[in-house]
Amino acid sequence: MSDFTGPEQYQNLFDPKAYLDDYYRLEGDCMGDEYLRFSLKHLAQIYSSGKVKGETLIDIGSGPTIYPLLSACEVYKNIICTDFTDRNREELKAWLTNQPGSFDWSPVVKLVCQLEGDKVPWTEKEDHLRRTIKQVLKCDILESNPTDPVVLPQADGLISFLCFEAACKDQPAYVSALNNITTLLKPGGYLVLSGVLGNTYYMVGKVKFSGILLTEDFIKEALRGAGYTIVSFERSDTTEESFQDKSNFNALYLVLAQKKCTGLKGGSD
Ligand SMILES: C[S@@+](CC[C@H](N)C(=O)[O-])C[C@H]1O[C@@H](n2cnc3c(N)ncnc32)[C@H](O)[C@@H]1O
Hints:
The protein contains 9 helices and 9 strands. The protein has helices at 7-13, 16-23, 32-48, 86-96, 106-115, 122-132, 164-167, 171-182, 216-225; strands at 54-59, 76-83, 133-138, 155-161, 185-197, 201-204, 207-210, 228-237, 251-259. It has a 7-stranded mixed β-sheet. S-adenosylmethionine is lined by residues 7, 10, 14, 61-63, 65, 83-85, 88, 139-142, 161-163, 166-167.
């Protein structure tokens, strides 16, 4: 029997509240702390460069989270969040409408404000992000139109964090999913893709979810094959053993890639 946890397991077993508590409390004992600090720092740099911006950004596989969008909302006018599971989309909508009991992202929002040089008060940024997220859609990256039955116009930017390694059963499926989401991006638009390397599982509460083992070379090759130029590839190797009960990654990565304008696939950077 395969250990792969596919769409059905996500729909039935992925508990958004447990996931947020396990990974996004921004406390020293929380595994997500390392990932948040790494990714938010690089996102603040990318979106303050002035190069990456536009009308619309689509977040692929948002889960119940908003952290990758806190710097992005300063440079995109509209953001569309997406995820496969009903419960994740409901949790996200609960935060968007400020419902009691929704996750407290304020420590993360404050950190992003700090990284951006405290230009706006954190409450203002939070409100601004809430106003910028215009839709929360169902998506399946394994489908040729991931937002089917909705047909979206091509966006200026895509962002996807920790989704591909979770959703794809093997490397060919990853390549195919990357091609699927690339149809949602305008030529010349930017993709920010981030996740973990060397990982084969992660825990959400007491449930184990599979991950596919990724390497830097494989990701770069997959991006080039899908028609991107790699602008930057950041990685942070970890020697941390203490989170092995949650996940077994050995590095974090964040890549900025630009979809080529020619429509031609392949080629070098
Ligand atoms: C590890 S979580 C990452 C969530 C969030 N992006 C983050 O950074 O924490 C993996 C996400 O992938 C979503 N997912 C799983 N299979 C998917 C699929 N076929 N298409 C789209 N999303 C999927 C899950 O519902 C889950 O929210």
